[in-house]
């Protein structure tokens, strides 16, 4: 069994909504980034890649590559899940903490978990999405950006691996 | 086996001490919050809930609900541990990193671990409390708040779950 | 099975390079600290110690102790790995996320993973190093410091421990 972590941040700017865990939430700001800037899926992509030492999201999908402009981040996450399976891994669970002053994530939690379940091909019970504010302090507290911390646990074939 | 993460922050203001991992430490600041603002227990509560996709602490204990004003955060942690057990889970270990410029956590580490062991009903060897400063930079470094990062590992009944 | 987390930060100042995961990278800044200030190895040291409740790096190697001035941080990591083994643990994997605006970590990833494999005595496939920027915001974004988040998974002898 192996566990990986992931961390990502994207800046906020004036806009009409944010995409988090594959769910669009109307909001008075949007996330900046070369893709859809879904910090939750980016952090989780890194956490999965980590379990087999397969580099990070920037390695597989360079921000400088124009083909990922505006891309749906599910592409990145599904790619990472495929790499895990090719290494003989079975995803035990996936967990994301969103750190954002706004918008409220709670009303969208179930939709987000359903997306993760779909993208990863695992039971929704094994998919977790949580959220907290940064209590108005730091870059998250000043609404300059949204951060995400992800954890993924994967069992690899063979002995107690 | 599944692993969950948790992250929490509370602001510091002038006061007479902070409660961290259930232990009161005299200090020239206190943590703001609707409950006792124990960031360590809040982060760990989220990490446990994550292992069975049971939402987050704000979901179970809305800050807007007056009944949790000044509450001891052990209530939140024990509630999460109960949910884990109801889902067939056995807690393997619980780990918290406190990020705080002050006060010093080291002298209170054993007392904090004993509290976690008591609240979670697991051996103290499986309970870990660590601390680091933020080297005087960022919101933690400016003593505007204290942050905590938690990890919990839980084995659920049934096959390699 | 138990999972531990680790977090560390060191300030950046004018200099000629940084040591991350045991690899020196030429850069126009350096990391401040009592040892070589390798934030990645410090965070991972904490993550390993956490799996057996053995305190934190500051506990084992007080910054106030002059003998660790300028020390290579592999000493700290190897010490933690030894404690894990003495407790009957086998390290399943080690993962680090570096949060730094610069320098680029990608070109050094394989060298860093090889160092971790050497220090920990585990297969390189079980060693993961990832990196992300903080998108120019916060203390990392302002190049005031570099942060690291680590995760370690360890299986301890005996039943489903
Ligand atoms: Mg990103
Ligand atoms: Mg809280
Ligand atoms: Mg350090």
TrEMBL record, chains A, B, C:
It comes from the Bacteria. One of its GO terms (molecular function) is metal ion binding. Keywords: Isoprene biosynthesis, Lyase, Metal-binding, Multifunctional enzyme, Nucleotidyltransferase, Transferase. One of its GO terms (biological process) is terpenoid biosynthetic process. Residues 2-161 are annotated as: 2-C-methyl-D-erythritol 2,4-cyclodiphosphate synthase. The record marks 34, 133 as: Transition state stabilizer. 4-CDP-2-C-methyl-D-erythritol 2-phosphate binds at residues 8-10, 34-35, 56-58, 132-135, 139, 142. A divalent metal cation binds at residues 8, 10, 42. Residues 2-154 form the 2-C-methyl-D-erythritol 2,4-cyclodiphosphate synthase domain. Bifunctional enzyme that catalyzes the formation of 4-diphosphocytidyl-2-C-methyl-D-erythritol from CTP and 2-C-methyl-D-erythritol 4-phosphate (MEP) (IspD), and catalyzes the conversion of 4-diphosphocytidyl-2-C-methyl-D-erythritol 2-phosphate (CDP-ME2P) to 2-C-methyl-D-erythritol 2,4-cyclodiphosphate (ME-CPP) with a corresponding release of cytidine 5-monophosphate (CMP) (IspF). Belongs to the IspF family. This is Bifunctional enzyme IspD/IspF. The chain holds residues 246 to 406 of 406 of the full protein.
């Amino acid at each position: 069994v192996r566990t990986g972590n992931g961390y990502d941040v994207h800046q906020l700017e004036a806009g009409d909504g944010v995409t988090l865990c594959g769910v669009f939430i109307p909001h008075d700001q949007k996330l900046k980034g070369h893709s859809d800037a879904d910090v939750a899926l980016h952090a989780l992509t890194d956490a999965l890649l980590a379990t087999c030492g397969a580099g990070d999201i920037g390695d597989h999908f360079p921000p400088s590559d124009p083909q990922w402009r505006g891309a749906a981040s599910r592409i990145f996450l599904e790619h990472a899940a495929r790499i895990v399976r090719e290494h003989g891994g079975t995803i035990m669970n996936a967990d994301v903490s969103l750190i954002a002053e706004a918008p409220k994530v709670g009303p969208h939690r179930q939709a987000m978990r359903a997306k993760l379940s779909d993208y990863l091909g695992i039971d929704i019970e094994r998919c977790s999405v949580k959220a907290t504010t940064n209590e108005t302090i730091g870059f998250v507290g000043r609404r300059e950006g949204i951060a995400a911390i992800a954890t993924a646990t994967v069992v690899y074939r063979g002995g107690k691996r």
